[in-house]
Specification:
54% of the residues lie in helices and 13% in strands. By secondary structure, it is an alpha/beta fold.
Length: 281
């Protein structure tokens, strides 16, 4: 269970206690606010996140308006952990890239595991353009892709700063997925070979023949020991609870343990590149 879900359930439990203390049934509370009765049960069970307006109406109906500020603050803290893409990108893709850059600036040690995409900090401009252009196009239409690509490229200056350390682990599948034209992917693979030689970077590849003890279900970032960032199809999770950071760090270490590094990693990339070039001839 994520820290977001635990926090949502805790908020729901607090609201249920308020309702019961006010001696209101769920149906009575719903009718007083013109809500569907299922809304009460979903919020109290942690299956639906209330809005600020919902909380204010709830405490008012329970004659506990003095708790509005406290519960609204809990809601805002909850929302920091789970940011829907429609909200995240309402100011465009560039703003999101700038936010990530701020996190990276404040981070000394970045760990990144990817099972599908080439890590953003290692992408070529061409690969990044296709990646950002495909990002959730069914959810919103981005019109600042060029600006977002420019910021992503600027983020890569972090790779050359003293005092910064980066550990990337990708699956071999990441190197083979054609999420862009073959010629763009060929350039991206060549770029990975070069970057894998940087002293600030540890770059690992998990070959296909590896037996996994844990499925590589999704990618994630671990920023020092203070935050984990996970992106799914519709939202970004920012996890700050120590237990969750520790769990993702342990998972990253498991993936890193079975990865190949240095010349072995470059040999895998070169093999994938040769296979790709053969299909282009």
């Amino acid at each position: 269970m994520s820290s977001f879900q635990r926090a949502r359930e805790a908020l729901g439990l607090r609201l249920r206690e308020l309702r019961r203390d006010a001696q209101l049934t769920g149906r009575q509370l719903a009718e007083s606010q013109g809500w569907h009765p299922s809304k009460i049960s979903k919020i109290e069970a942690g299956k639906q996140t209330p809005s600020e307006a919902d909380i204010k109406a709830w405490v008012r109906a329970c004659n506990r308006s003095e708790l509005a500020v406290e519960l609204t603050a809990s809601l805002r803290m909850l929302e920091q952990h789970y940011v829907e893409f429609r909200r995240l990108f309402r100011t465009g893709l560039r703003a999101n890239q700038e936010e990530i850059a701020e996190i990276e600036t404040a981070t000394d040690f970045t760990r990144n595991f990817e099972s599908v995409f080439v890590p953003g900090l290692l992408q070529t401009p061409e690969y990044a353009r296709y990646r950002l252009g495909q990002t959730h196009e069914d959810i919103f239409k981005a019109d600042d892709i060029d600006e977002a690509v420019a910021v992503r490229m600027n983020r890569q200056q972090m790779l050359y700063r003293s005092g910064k350390r980066f550990h990337f682990v990708v699956t071999e599948a990441t190197l083979r997925y054609l999420l862009c034209p073959p010629e763009v992917m060929a350039g991206q693979l060549d770029r990975l070979v070069s970057l894998s030689t940087l002293t600030t970077i540890r770059f690992g590849v998990i070959p296909f023949e590896t037996q996994y003890h844990v499925a590589p279900a999704h990618g994630f970032y671990v920023y020092d020991d203070r935050m984990v960032r996970v992106e799914n199809l519709t939202a970004v999770l920012k996890l700050t609870q120590p237990s969750e950071i520790a769990a993702h760090t342990k998972l990253f270490d498991q993936f890193a343990k079975v990865a190949r590094y240095g010349a072995e990693a470059r040999a895998i990339i070169t093999r994938v590149l040769a296979d790709l070039v053969a299909t282009m001839e």
